[in-house]
Design brief:
Layout: E1 8-11, H1 13-21, H2 29-35, E2 41-45, H3 46-59, H4 61-71, E3 75-77, H5 81-96, H6 105-116, E4 120-122, E5 137-138
Helix pairs in contact: 3-4, 5-6
Amino acid sequence: MERIGKRLIRLDTSFLIAPWRSRGNVDHPARIVLSQYPEELLVVCIPIGGEFLEGAAFISEQRYRESLGFLHLFDIRAMDLETAGRYAHVVAELRKKNRLQGASKADRWFAVWALQHRARVASQNRKHFSHIPELELIGC
């Protein structure tokens, strides 16, 4: 359920990793960017959460558990059939224009969900999303 009056910022995996790695550094560029949007709700979608946890699980079970706890700081959102339909159309159009290179499937799902919910996208990999029209990007 959307929180009334809150605009959403969808966090990409790269933007989750930055504050995770810099937990003690309040001056980290990612933290500074997010501090510019104090009224906005920070959201992580399921595929991005999965990417983030996959990296942690690869390192160790302890890192996985710590990362899972970190994800609880954010609003976790699922996708639905409307998202799937939008994904189909956006990706079909990108395929027609031969512009699928760069972003992963998870990135494309993530971008389509952000468009669906008029959310900003916080990413340190702007090139992964720059080819998707109407997507509002913020980042370092």
